[in-house]
Structure formats: C-alpha cells, structure tokens
Write a structure and sequence with these properties.
Strand content: 15-25%
Oligomer: single chain
Radius of gyration: 15 Å
Structural class: alpha/beta
Number of strands: 6
Helix content: 25-40%
Distance between the termini: 15 Å
Shape: globular
C-alpha cells in the first residue's frame, strides 16, 4: 500500500482489518515504523490503536554528506547531529503518553533488522526515501510481515521524483 500522507495509514489498517483480527484472537497488534523522525505518525498510530505495540526505528544521526540519501534532496538527510538529537527528543515527547506501548530503537534499519526477531502485523516504511534505501527496507522487513499483514509506504510517489530526486518511485 502506497501513501503520501500519514493519516491514511490508519485507514489502511482499518480497511485490511488487521486490528480487529488481532483483537478477536485476544492478542496485541505488533507494528513497526521505519523512520520515526519527530514521532508524529507514531503518536497518531499509538493514539488510535489501544492494543498496538509499536516498534520505532530511526538512527536519529547525521548522515554522510556524500551518501545517496544526503544527495537526494530530502531535508531530513541534511540535518546536523544536534538537529537529529532534537528530533529524537521530540519523538520521545510525542509518544510519552504511550511509553508502555512503544519500543524505540535508535538504529539504522539494517541493524534493527538484525535485532528484531519477531514478526509484525504491519510495517510502515518512512525512512531513507532513496530507491536503494527503500528497496533495502523492503528486503529486510518484508520477510518479517505476518501472513495477512501489510507493508505501508510513505512518500513513495513524491512529486519530485523521476530524477528530480527525493522520493522513491522507480519500477
């Protein structure tokens, strides 16, 4: 499922009915967000699903200026370590009301994939928006999506791509 706005993530989860299926079996909804930035989408998800345990993955670190991600034009890729630290603190504040329902991993998606041995009911990909970065997240995390689960992509069809950079859209 491809989205260009965050709020429709909830519509996708509702439409697929994952949360209802999980509730019926008396379990919790296990979600993963790759690219938590300031925690706004995490707060939205946590606030809408009482039975959600959300794993938030983001490196919250300054990126190498020579990396493909930094050259993509994504404003997040150009943030200093100080700005990334402020975003991390904001993500923690934004999700504080649900602190018992969120697990924060301050790691790259590659490192997180190695540590996260569980399966997920949904994976929300909103990290490195380059084609190779998004492809890596798909490769790493698609095998971790439960049968009947969903992988959701943010900014996949961003206006500035086909080689105007930033978003992924290449098929």
């Amino acid at each position: 499922v491809i989205l260009d706005d965050v709020s429709p993530v909830i519509n996708v989860i509702d439409k697929v009915g994952i949360d209802r299926k999980i509730a019926e079996r008396g379990s919790y909804l296990n979600g993963l967000e790759i690219g938590s930035h300031r925690g706004r989408s995490a707060a939205l998800l946590l606030g809408n699903y009482e039975n959600l345990i959300l794993h938030m993955v983001d490196s919250w670190c300054e990126h190498d200026i020579n990396s493909e991600y930094s050259k993509s034009g994504d404003s997040v890729a150009k943030l200093s370590q100080e700005e990334q630290e402020a975003n991390y603190q904001e993500a923690i504040r934004a999700t504080m009301p649900w602190a018992r329902k969120r697990i924060v991993y301050r790691l790259t998606s590659e490192r997180a994939a190695g540590r996260l041995g569980m399966m997920f009911d949904f994976v929300f990909v909103d990290g490195d928006h380059t084609y190779s970065g998004c492809n890596l997240d798909i490769t790493l995390f698609w095998p971790k999506v439960h049968q009947g689960g969903v992988m959701i992509f943010h900014d996949y069809t961003h206006k500035r791509n086909e080689s105007g950079k930033f978003g992924v859209k290449r098929a």
